[in-house]
Write a structure and sequence with these properties.
2 helices; about 80% helix; mainly alpha; single chain
């Protein structure tokens, strides 16, 4: 898929959404790691 097609499919704030998604997955991974270590 070309860059133009990606911008057509994704919202204009796709970069901030990607950063948010990455931060969320990192946060979930941290929570899972902490929860696993406590048990």
């Amino acid at each position: 898929m070309s860059r133009e097609e990606q911008e057509a499919y994704m919202p204009t704030d796709s970069k901030s959404y990607t950063i948010l998604l990455a931060n969320t997955s990192c946060l979930i991974r941290t929570v899972v790691t902490v929860a696993t270590q406590q048990f």
